[in-house]
Amino acid sequence: MKFYTKQHKYYCAIDLNARSMYVCILDSEGQVVFHKDIKNRPDALMIAISPFLDDLVIAVECMFSWYWVSDFCEDNNITFVLGHALPMQDYLIYDKYIGNK
Asked: pTM (2 decimals)?
């Protein structure tokens, strides 16, 4: 399994659901700078992440609805990481800020 190891100023994890997504953004020190449940719409995501666009990576678990986020990131030149749902449960960002909400 390959792991994404590049360093960024901001890390965004998204928990996608049918109609909404929980977005959590950490800074490079591991501090939560944004966490909110928002609508599953590209415009809502752009509003949420716009203050952090200077060096942001977005990670999404590989579930049924990740495709539009990948397209959104490609269209907006944002680094996108797709992770398998089960191993992502072991990542600190997932467990601490999304998995146990």
From this structure: 0.79
